[in-house]
């Protein structure tokens, strides 16, 4: 019989814990919405925010790649101008 009372007590404790966690989740969601409103002026879906962040990082990398490619192209042009032709070295 004591097993049943222990199980019932555990069930009551779990229900109480769940109620407390649900309240905490509600509080955190409200706080999150307030922070989003202050930062973005609207409630933003987190998936949308992650997509924007990823795209910004990708655009930064693309910009750096473009800069490096331009620098290397300029270096190659200078190298082609400076190097003597093979025909001049043979003669």
Could you please describe the fold and organization of this structure?
With 91 residues, the protein is mainly alpha-helical. The chain folds into 2 domains: 1-42; 45-91. The chain has helices at residues 2-40, 46-82, 86-90. The longest helix has 39 residues, at 2-40. The N and C termini lie far apart (110 Å).
Summarize the helices and strands and which ones pair or pack.
Elements: H1 2-40, H2 46-82, H3 86-90
- Taken as a percent bin, the fraction of beta residues is under 5%
Series of H and E elements:
HHH
Number of helices: 3
- Mean pLDDT metric: 85
Number of strands: 0
Query: Major β-sheet, in short?
Result: none
Radius of gyration equals 32 Å
Low-confidence stretches are none
Secondary-structure content class: mainly alpha
Whole-number tally of structural domains = 2
Which descriptors apply to this entry?
91 residues, mainly alpha, elongated
Offer a concise description of the structure.
The chain has 91 residues and is an all-alpha fold. It folds into two domains: 1-42; 45-91.
């Amino acid at each position: 019989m004591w097993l049943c009372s222990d199980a019932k007590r555990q069930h009551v404790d779990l229900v109480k814990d769940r109620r407390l966690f649900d309240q905490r989740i509600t509080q955190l969601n409200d706080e999150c919405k307030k922070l989003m409103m202050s930062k973005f002026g609207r409630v933003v879906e987190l998936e949308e925010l992650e997509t924007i962040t990823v795209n910004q990082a990708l655009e930064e990398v693309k910009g750096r790649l473009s800069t490096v490619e331009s620098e290397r192209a300029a270096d190659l042009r200078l190298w082609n101008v400076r190097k003597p032709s093979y025909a001049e070295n043979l003669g």
